[in-house]
Amino acid sequence: MSDNGGAPGPGSAAGPRSAPNQSVALAAMLFAVSMTFIDQTIVSIAAPSIIDELGLSSSGMQWVVNAYLLTLAAFFALGGRLSDIFGHRRIMLVGTVVFVLSSVLCGCVPTGEVAQTWLIVFRATQGVGAALMFPAALAVVIAVFPVDRRGRALALFFGLSGALTALGPLLGGWLTAWTWRAIFWVNVPVAVVAVVLTALARIPNIRRPERLDLPGAVLVALGMGLSVLGLQQASAWGWSSFATWACVIGGLLILVLFAAYELRLRQPLIKLQVFRDRAFTADSLVLFFAMLAFVPVFFFASVYAQVSLSASPDQAALFLLYFFIGFGIASQWGGRILDKRGARPAMKLGTALGAVGFALWAGKLTDLSMHDQWPYAALAGAGIGFLLAPASTDAVNRAIGASYGEVTGITQTVRNYAASVGMAVFGTILTHITTDRVVETLQSKGVPDAAAQDAARSVAEAVTGHPDGQEPSGSGPVASAMRDSMDAIRLDFAQANQWVFYGMAIALGIAFLCSLLHPGTRVTQADQQVTADPRAAPAD
Questions:
Q1: Does one domain contain both 350 and 247?
Q2: Is there a single domain that holds both residue 31 and residue 51?
Q3: Which band of pLDDT confidence, cut at 50, 70 and 90, is reported for residue 18?
Q4: What does the pLDDT read at residue 164?
Q5: 269-287 burial: b if 16+ Cβ within 10 Å, else e
Q6: How would DSSP label each residue in 379-427?
Q7: Is the pLDDT of residue 498 over 90?
Q8: Which of 17, 376, 391, 531 is deepest in the core (most CB within 10 A)?
Q9: Which range of residues forms the domain containing residue 145?
Q10: Strands 537-539 and 205-207, bridge-based pairing
Q11: Domain count, the chain
């Protein structure tokens, strides 16, 4: 008997395959990948509550966010290749199981000294599950839709999956009011729906048996991990530290070695020859610089709202909703521009609007008024909305001579590595500037330099800044000065965030320049037909 439209199993007679249900298959894959997008943002809202209950440091909390992004980036290419080799449906289901089990364990983290390590480890395994799931889910969508309907299906896939990122802050705010642990447990019912729909959709397990490039997978994971470690720890080690630069430069050199190694292989982990396509290179560069801002903005805007604006998690979620209103509306227009005129106009418009929006938003952060910022937050979101789906879809459509799994592995690796770098770099900037600003505030209150430095580092590490209105505990002149200076310290934190948001504006400005490199050519259905791989075969 054939399995969901796949090839007959060993010893069975060949028979007609059941056609997959395209609508159910698309719904199943969207439910699956929604977890990966929601988890990029949902933790940001709960960050102060997690820090408070588990006693995490600021850098530790950033690693809770970054562990997911980094492993997602480091293993995405491997996930794409495993999907090609062992079958898209099978790897998608394996990834879903790994992801949801990791989510449950994240929600069950014990308190005490082991808490930070526990949470980082299982956030990392969540990222591995997502890296297996996403490229396989995309490959399923491509496999079940014919060429003449594939463009609309891909636009819906990228558009909805990107928009689902908006659910993270909203769910996070609502669930955190009950318990922050529920932000991880919510993935369980979503995963169950995805698995049930996958079974109902009769999806064939298309595979392409080839050699797996394990050395390449190790090199890319090691290179990304080391480079982000150096950037992340720069706030603790210092930019003059040998360890900081050893990690950053060493990681980048390993990535160069990885590229040289891949170019020599007949069956590499990533076919880097696809970068010979100027349009694909432009798409990837735009995605890289845009993603420096897109995922980190949720973390930094959420913490800013809860520290500087004294907002509750629910209020912080509504603050981020301004961004997503702009994102949601613009993503629809961006899809239409892609269909009619190609990716280049949408990317140019999106990067320009994003750069202006983030710059104007940065200028309003020190007003300490949530409602005065909504036009600029919405403008920044609109910029990302215009470019995200067109750049991603155009890159996937250019999988000429390579599998969709491989090309998706490249683009998603670029996106998630950029998000990890953005979290690390902007987190370091925020910590340094917050420390400097708080030192100045405390010194103005007569606190000695050494005591001011110690207190400022504590504030920067705590990051929450007592957003619930509680005053710092303790007695003595330093504690008294801290209590008297809380309003000024909240402003200090807002000024530090200004540097972060101006950095995001610069990243979008660079993305605009990269969009000009795109030749403006469009991929036709005839071009997409070339991507059909004669080596691909259904499996059981």
A1: no
A2: yes
A3: low
A4: 67
A5: bbbeebeebebbbbbbbbb
A6: HHHHHHHHHHHHHHHHHHHT-TTS-HHHHHHHHHHHHHHHHHHHHHHHH
A7: yes
A8: 391
A9: 22-213+265-436+491-523
A10: antiparallel
A11: 2
